[in-house]
User: Which sequence fits this backbone?
């Protein structure tokens, strides 16, 4: 499936343009591709961070549930003490 591409005009400091040109030359791609790759990498990192935070939050919730369930089990099944 073809991805829709849109044209974007941006202004960058000259040192970043020089860096983009250097990377483009090294990777044999266009400046646009360099910017696109950088934005995609940034988006991937944001998603990774959000997922890590979500997993940590779920781990805390699961731990709290397990601790409360452990106390309840002794009330329901006293022989398991």
Assistant:
């Amino acid at each position: 499936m073809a991805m829709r591409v849109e044209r974007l005009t941006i202004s960058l400091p000259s040192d970043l343009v020089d860096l983009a040109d250097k990377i483009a030359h090294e990777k044999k791609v266009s400046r646009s591709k360099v910017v696109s790759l950088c934005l995609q990498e940034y988006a991937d990192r944001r998603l990774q961070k959000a997922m890590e935070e979500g997993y940590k939050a779920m781990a805390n919730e699961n731990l709290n549930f397990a601790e409360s369930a452990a106390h309840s089990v002794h009330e329901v099944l006293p022989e398991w003490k």
